[in-house]
Amino acid sequence: MTLTLCFLFFLVALLYSAAGFGGGSSYLAILALWGVNFQLMKSTALLCNIAVVIGGVYHFWKSGHLPMKKALWLSLVSVPMAFIGSYLPMKQETFFLLLGIALTLAAIFMCYRMFFERNEETETVRESGGTVYGIIGGAIGLLSGMTGIGGGIYLAPVLKLGKWDTSKNIAGLSSFFILVNSVAGILGQVAKREIVFNVDFVLPLLLSVIVGGQIGARLSAKVLKPKWVAGATAVLILYAGVRMLIR
Asked: What residue intervals traverse the membrane (predicted)?
């Protein structure tokens, strides 16, 4: 079982890291289908998110595609909200209900990116104040803290629809957003003393996503075709999400 999970986590990290995502929604979907304890699911997905996007944040920052002012505006509210979301007491049934909704929404967003999002040679960017970024970051941060998803899968389509930055900058912002929210989510679990960390289970998965993330961050998006990757993995995530809602 561990070898299969390691391969799946490696593949997810490889494919998602090039687009600025950590793969948290897919990690959770895979772990849910494997019947892993829900507290262990949350901590494992968040730790894997952190391991993957650290390299992505550096990559986007170094290439000039991480506008720090916008990243800080988004994080100013999202980080405390992610902490609160993770700290809130939650029964297993409530967690799986929220996760089912979150995964279903994530699958819908993935399908949108695949079928409706277009790459334009000249992208129009609309400027907005910090209040808008704070509202967006806070809402997504709360959801990410409660479910163990970094939130980048929701942030990217919202920024794209609002035309608040270019596609490459949005990938950089999503990577940074996932990093800070995942750290806040881990701290929330630690604060309420409900974090579950099984070294024998988590360590092989962490090593797998680190290797996959480093490879993916260095590959061209044209090679990996992240939109088609999103469409393919949306099937897995949608299946897991609907299955949880039905149960």
From this structure: 44-61, 71-88, 94-112, 132-157, 169-188, 195-216, 228-246
Structural domain boundaries, residue 134: 2-246
Q: Please tell me the predicted confidence (pLDDT) of residue 159.
A: 82
pTM: 0.81
* The pLDDT value given to residue 222: 47
pLDDT of residue 103: 76
Whose tokens are 């750290």? That residue is 183
Cα–Cα distance between 240 and 164 in angstroms, integer?
31
Question: Is 114 in contact with 234 (CB distance < 8 Å)?
Answer: yes
Position 115 scores a pLDDT of: 66
Q: Dihedral sign for Cα 98, 100, 104, 107, please.
A: positive
**pLDDT beyond 70 at 39:** yes
Q: How many domains does the chain have?
A: 1
Q: How far is CA 30 from the centre of its chain?
A: 14
Cα-Cα-Cα-Cα dihedral sign, residues 232, 154, 177, 241: negative
